[in-house]
């Protein structure tokens, strides 16, 4: 009755602590399904540990695996497929896959995560924590170990969670109070001579509980005020490098000329000037659609950075997202819209408005979609195809630069690559009284002096590109500024950075009245970073005059008067649909070849999800059996006769432990033998214990012959024990690792 | 000089016969009888403390009867004088000389019934003889001979008109134990044979006093490994440091535990002491030597609880000293 009460208290407290820990996922997952999965796992784990409380650890492990695969579909995968709630092969495969790869997927998906197959993670955590925590509570006398499991669960949830979750103080205080309470209860239970002061237990419990509550309240109120607290919590999401490299894709700005009217070669029909790229519906006229934002300049091209370093966390990297997204830029009215890709647009860059909060794809493989919160741009590594469509909700914001704007003082997104334009920037700025004034002066100067050409005849001498060399030619003394959006936006962003205004280049379009975006609508503009960290738009019309063609008789800069015509670079082809090389699923799709020898898929799946685990389990069992054989050999052959005699008795005890016999710890051999004798096949234990003791404590002590004879009796008793058990019991005992754990660590029975 | 296996077997068989013999008088109390015989063969004294009518006197008389030797019973009362115990010197007018009339203490087995009813002065008269086996009366010292054993009884519930035994006196008793009420089967058998007024008379001597002395000397030769001696020492030491104990076991208690353990080992036919022997005897040997802290006593802690805690907390040796 007393033990049942202890079990109930331990189970309930572990369950409450686990539930509080799982609430830490509130900002990581969308909805409440994560809590259901976690709590279900917790309950199942506790149940398994309760039912198997008298069984070896290996039985608990098997129970956990069975519960995971048999009930995992119903708990964590319901709603994914028609039969996902049943342990059919697909379900088991998904569970196994997510138990290995789900952790990475969770950490590389921008929260809140929809759940889906990723609910496997809280389910696994709940199962393991519930089973381990309760098993330790039942089996270990010490107060701390099961409470540590609850703390480990909380730590795991924190590490897998988000950087700035809500309700941390409340959850932390509740968790701490409950954990201390559990610790006190177990501590009191474990204390010897419980009779002493037994009459005061209730009052001591009440005082202890009051102290716990007081401490929790104090921590809740004063904790946030304490000095030395880390400004941001450590989460794996912030440490992990997302397995995606956006730098592998060519800069879309470098291929800008594919959208222009001019230059065309016979072999290249990719000119998209008057072709429909995509159609936007649902968004108001004038909304800016962003294709790519380039925030890094390497001296050759402006490109999208993997991590622009704007934030400590992963928000400025391209991460997977679920259908919904917590976007800090989304303020104000939300609008819903749809974009349908036309026949002549493709590539990995996904046209999107600013401040996306929801997206759902109709057609393309949306699993690989990645979004960068800092640049408000998205990529689809499997590439968009004609006819693809996607709906979204976004908070369309567009802040334009004004002279009164305060700019960001936290540093420039580009390094010293473009330092050679420092003097030019100063010249164009004309010594304004603030960085923003200087930047606007630069823009005005470019617009005033610049001419516009796409390099069409007869202006072939003005090539594409925005490398340092091209921009140096572009701004050469004695020449004229001649180029298109590519050169002007690139130069404007560089010069703005030189005058102290962080700037980046954005490629996109402005939605017209009919929503159709053609190549001629594509432009590149510049965004300047404001003092609050936001980015304000500097429209292309501010630094570029598209109506002013270059003068053919204008003096040429010295570098270009050599008579040599620099050939324009080949148009940059849109990236192939190679996908994310680190994304396993995408790679499998992209690299699959029909020819050549490949193993059947089912065989690979069986080997991966059944063969490897079976091999691992077999290796573990082999290691356990090997360790026991080595231990027996060592006990029999190493050390003095006294040590070998003592080892023989310990071998007998360990053999009994392997069969699930509870051997009292710290008792004499004869006391232990009296317990062993109640188990099948161990009738000879008292005699063996007596022989051990009389030989051990006799006047002359044991000699080699006596020890050898004794070990024969040990072998006889072992055989007797084994013969009295079933084959399954013998196998279970052979792989039971319990006896490898020092006996003093286990509760006295 | 050690005990051979044959000697150990003879000791064991004799011990079992003695147990069987005494059990004729005290039914169903085999373990208590074993303890009493162990005290006898350890040449120590025994204190039986129990409620009235549990068979304390029967046990003492049966033990006295099983040994072919002299025995006497002293009923302790408040007006009992020391000379009533030790003896007195009287002037013989016929011989014209003082003549010593030995008291009941000059017997092999002395039953001191309700010892706590006598005055401290009379109780103290037992001190010298219990410790040294001799009596000094009127300046003359006289040996009481071997074997010599005092079996004292006392009633734990009647406190009026009694004098609690001082610690020094208690320490001279090798063991303290209680008989306890007989179980159901023993009770039925006693009732069925209620016509037997004095069951101690059923016990006839099966061993002589010199044999008892010989067995005690044999027990002295039993081997005890230093590891077990260290275990006994650790137990005693721990008893002195236990949080619920005001006064721990004395050195005399330590010696008593070793001596009785040797007899206990021989009684099981072994020529060496095991840790189990020490554990089996720890409670009867130590319980009257430990004095509880008043607060622990007030909280309901008993000496038996403390001894159980000592046996749990001090690990028994599993290997001999190399």
Q: Could you characterize the architecture of this molecule?
A:
The complex is a heterodimer of chains A (749) and B (322). Chain A has 749 residues and is α+β, with helices and mostly antiparallel strands. Chain A folds into four domains: 2-191 and 200-225 and 233-238, no CATH class; 246-394, no CATH class; 419-560, C8orf32 fold; 604-745, no CATH class. In chain A, 43% of the residues lie in helices and 11% in strands. In chain A, the strands form five sheets. Chain A has a five-stranded mixed beta sheet. In chain A, strand 4 and strand 5 form a beta hairpin. Chain A is elongated. Mean pLDDT of chain A is 80; it is low at 192-199, 558-567 and 569-595. Chain B has a domain at 222-322: Orthogonal Bundle (Helicase, Ruva Protein, domain 3). In chain B, 46% of the residues lie in helices and 16% in strands. In chain B, helix 1 (5-23) packs across helix 2, helix 1 packs across helix 3 and helix 9 crosses helix 10. The relative contact order of chain B is 0.16. The mean pLDDT of chain B is 89. At the A-B interface, helix 17, helix 18 and helix 19 of A face helix 11 and helix 13 of B. Chain B: Residues 45-175 form the ATPase AAA-3 domain. Chain B: Residues 238-307 form the ChlI/MoxR AAA lid domain. Chain B: Keywords: ATP-binding, Nucleotide-binding.
